Amino acid sequence: MSSNIPTDPALERFNSIPDFGAFKPENAGPLLKRLIQAQDQALLALEASSAPSWAGVVQPLTELAEPLSYAWGVVHHLLSVKDTEALREVVQALQPEVVAAGLRLAQSQTLYHAYRELKSGSGWNVLDEAQRRVVDAAILSAEHSGIALEGAERTRFNEIEAELARLGTLFGNHALDATKAFSLILTDKEQVLGLPETVLAMMAQSARSVAESEPALANATPDSGPWRLTLDAPILIPFLKHAKSRELREKLYRAYVTQASAGELDNQPVILDILKLKREKAALLGYNTYAALSLSRKMAKEIGAVQKMLDDLRKTARPVAEEEYAELLRFVATQNAEANPELKLWDIGYWAERQREQTLDFTDEQLRPFFPLPRVLEGLFGVAERLFGVRIIAADGEAPVWEPSVRFFRVVDRAGEAVASFFLDPYTRPAEKRQGAWMNTCLDRKLLADGSVRLPVAYLICNQSPPVGETPSLMTFSEVETLFHEFGHGLQHMLTRVDYVDAAGINNIEWDAVELPSQFMENWCYHRPTLLTFARHFESGEPLPQHLFDKLLSARNYRAGSQFLRQVHLGSLDLALHSSFDPAGEQSIQTLAEAVAQENTILPPLAEDRFLCTFGHIFAGGYAAGYYSYKWAEVLAADAFTAFTDAGLDNPEKLAEVGSRFRETVLALGGGKEPGAVFRMFRGRDPDPKALLQSYGLSPASP
Ligand code: ZN
Predict the structure, then answer these.
(1) Which of 521, 539, 551, 544 is nearest to 380 (CA)?
(2) What backbone torsions phi and psi does residue 394 show, to the nearest 5 degrees?
(3) pLDDT of 146-190, one tens digit each?
(4) What is 179-238 written as a DSSP string?
(5) Choice among 22-31, 285-294, 442-451, 452-461 with the minimum mean pLDDT
């Protein structure tokens, strides 16, 4: 190790939580370079000494890859929650080298052959099921990394991988920058009519946040403005639902669906390049399409199986969605027919919300005061304790954080023994944090050389409204569901009992099964005794009234056909782009998108709609030819939840018994067992799609 290269506690505490406070972007470059070098040397040493056994090749390979993946993981995490120019530069400069170093591991012929020998030799018999799945996945993964390619094909393959990584990052940066680039300063009260108080407060706060460059905004207030309208989701979504100004809704909607589709931030050429390269990559590996390549490592396996599920769901959802649209038109006609002769896309959200208010007689905003973040957390942690026997204890200050509002928690079992810990970064920070919500792994569970266990650590990231003044963060019900969702991922990461990094927690779980625990957790938001443990007014302490809860339940199924169809649309579009669509062919992406939309939408998108330009799931995330996974896993999740309803949701002992079985199967076994088999261990049978349709009120309940 050369002494003139700085060390960095943020990037090198390989078995502990990173020291975020000590992170310096200028250190990251030289450090990553050193780690790449060290990994290369360790690889050479392993190639010279490997033997076809777990201890002879699998374990040492895991070990040697950890330091770089740890440091790169921290850098990537910070890029998504604490983006700076300096950090972006590091990532852009180092990404190709990191990708190349990863490929050298994945494409080591020597190690690949050692794995193949392990699988076919006597060493295979002594491996347990989880170890075998790790080896099998590694072999397939190596084959997908181009291990069998030689000469020019290998060179081309590596070029494609580096280019895809670069384009994915570029896509994400364009999308974030496009979101940041749009804002309108509203000064006339007429322009914000209809908006709830919380949104006005957020828009005034947003105005004040840019006062440095526009001093006139320094004294913005919720009541008298100025208000800053942005594409940041906590402002965008309620604005489209509530703003009376049709003109501004249209302006905002058009800005929203055309984000990152022109000028310097245009993602259209990026998308085309990504699709071309993915198709070329699939062909090099012997697959007809990228979808075929993607599905070969998923639970669904075949394009036909996915197509069938989407078709089945569409058959049920489309007629319901058509009826819902007809109902909306009838509703609008009773309201203000002359003023709204025709329903446009920017009217749907607004009128659907008015219709919802009338039929369900409550608004998202009315519910917010019942969901202050601190109480919601208590309730969520209570669920974890009652069902899974773990306690969650606030431990702020025990771990360094990247932002003062980030919380830290420890997870302990009933006996008080430490199980895991996690960070929670709850609030939106549009200037430096990616949108959306996610769970990511900070540390994986692992058996260390001294026989002790490194406990898992998770990042839970949300983007809800920050506290305003003395008022805590008041959550919409959907933000509550999102928190439960991400916590479900976190539980699977944190409650794993698998000691092999490569199969611990969410590692090595097929994509289309990985949303099972997260979607499962959302169901608890609709369980009244559970919800009432935390749904209390933040000032008066009054519990959520029964009539509001009843309405929440009806709201779940409100326009369910339309919402279902939307997911089927996105899943179909993703699948088509990665299977039937030929990026080198005559048909344009836009033509394909329009054809898919025709099948899956009631009101056609605008001609200039370029929603794909911000569809980060499939272009900057891991969901390419995998977006259907949400619905696939929802089938599993809804059916798993019925195990609890069958046991009786109001019976604490039964709940704990079923909960414990869920913990020991779905949450504990990680990627160490085929997901279909894990499901059968929990449920005693194969998943039944009926539960999902019924949970949305989309099919007649069985007698
Ligand atoms: Zn999820």
Answers:
(1) 521
(2) -60, 135
(3) 888 989 999 999 999 999 999 999 999 999 999 999 999 999 999
(4) HHH-EEEE--GGGGTT--HHHHHHHHHHHHHTTTT-GGGTT-BTTTB-EEEES-HHHHHH
(5) 22-31
222 & 131 share domain:
no
- Residue from 377, 201, 307, 180 nearest 628 by CA: 307
Residue 39 CA to ligand 1 centre (angstroms): 32
Residues 188 and 121 in one domain: no
Residue that finishes a domain, picked among 201, 233, 259: 259
Question: Which pLDDT value is given to residue 342?
Answer: 81
Domain containing 197: what range?
182-259
Residues with CB under 5 Å of ion ligand 1 are: 515, 518
At residue 256, φ and ψ (nearest 5 deg) are: -65, -50
Q: Over the stretch 485-524, which tens digit does the pLDDT of each residue have? A: 999 999 999 999 999 999 999 999 998 999 999 999 999 9
pTM of structure: 0.79
Question: 5 pLDDT exceeds 70?
Answer: no
Rg over CA atoms, the chain:
26
Residue 687's contacts (CB-CB under 8 Å, 6 or more residues apart) are 635, 636, 639, 679
515 C-alpha vs ligand 1 centroid, how far in Å? 5
3-state secondary structure of 360: helix
Question: For residue 79, what is the domain's CATH number?
Answer: 1.20.1050.40
Same domain, 115 and 21: yes
Q: Which amino acid is at 556?
A: R
Phi, psi of 504 (to 5 degrees): -80, 145
Of 454, 520, 510, nearest to 670 by C-alpha is 510
- Within a domain: 575: no
What torsion, rounded to 10 degrees, do the Cα atoms 308, 312, 314, 316 define? Answer: 180
Q: Percent of the chain beyond pLDDT 90?
A: 78
515 catalytic, yes or no? no
**Residues 575 and 307 sit within 8 Å (Cβ to Cβ):** yes
The token duo for 377 is: 């957390």
- CA 692 to centroid of ligand 1, rounded, Å: 17
CA 479 – ligand 1 centroid, Å = 13
Ligand 1 centroid to residue 690 C-alpha, Å: 22
Flag whether 96 is in a domain: yes
Tokens 């697959």 correspond to: 287
Name beta bridge partners: 423: 408, 459
Determine which one of 486, 510, 522, 634 is catalytic: 486
319 has pLDDT over 80: yes
Q: What are phi and psi of 326, to 5 degrees?
A: -60, -40
Other beta carbons less than 10 A from residue 58's beta carbon: 23
User: What is the whole-number distance in angstroms between the Cα of residue 334 and the centre of ligand 1?
Assistant: 39
DSSP-derived letter for residue 665 is: I
For residue 596, what are the contacts with CB-CB under 8 A and spacing of at least 6?
A: 569, 572, 573, 576
Peptide bond into 226 cis (omega under 30): yes
Q: How far apart are CA 193 and CA 513, in angstroms?
A: 44
Report how far apart, in Å, the C-alpha atoms of 79 and of each of 203, 248, 490 are.
Answer: 25, 33, 20
CA-wise closest residue to 491 among 637, 630, 638, 631: 637
The Cβ of residue 122 has, within 10 Å, a number of other Cβ atoms equal to 9
**The total number of structural domains that make up the chain:** 2
B/e letters for 571-597, b = 16+ CB within 10 Å, e = fewer, are bbbbbbbbbebebeeeeebeebbeebb
Three-state DSSP class for residue 504: coil
Residue type (1 letter), 425: D
